[in-house]
Amino acid sequence: MSNPSPIFQFTVSVNTEETPPRYTIYDTSGNPTSGTLTVTESNTLILYTLREDSSELQFVGPLVSGDLDNDLNYSITEDGQTIIFVDSDATTENICMKLVTAPKSSVYTSQDPQILNRQKN
Question: Which InterPro entries does UniProt cross-reference here (predicted)?
């Protein structure tokens, strides 16, 4: 039986009254933290969920630098309230992730352009 992947969970509050907006990250006990982690196991999950005081916002993606092998993956829940990172821990590197949010009322989505993949005959 294999061990489950480690999971780290944080909540995020965004003060949009300040310029630029101030992001505060909290640990599972509700204490402010830098959110810095040392990952030592493959497929580590790192979740950031917007707190209720920031629920008018949604995650629209991260700005990532230092991921030399592009082995840090992310997804955003359908409601935009949680961003989930999966770190493969395949390479020794220092990855910087900046969380990016936008007001729900100001996010626009295009119509559905399609890509049709077909096997070449």
Answer: Cupredoxin, DP-EP
Q: State pLDDT tens for residues 23-78.
A: 999 999 999 998 788 888 888 899 999 999 998 999 999 999 988 888 889 999 99
Total number of domains in the chain: 1
The answer to whether 54 and 101 are in contact (CB under 8 A) is yes
The one-letter amino acid at 43 = N
Identify the bridge partners of residue 44 per DSSP, sorted by sequence position: 87
| 37, part of any domain | yes
User: Can you give the three-state secondary structure of 67-87, one letter per residue?
Assistant: CCCCCEEEEECCCCCEEEEEE
**58 in a domain, yes or no?**
yes
The answer to whether residues 83 and 72 touch, using CB atoms and an 8 Å cutoff, is no
What is the spatial distance between Cα 11 and Cα 25, in angstroms, rounded to a whole number?
A: 6
8 Å CB contact between 44 and 51: no
Is the residue at 116 inside a domain? no
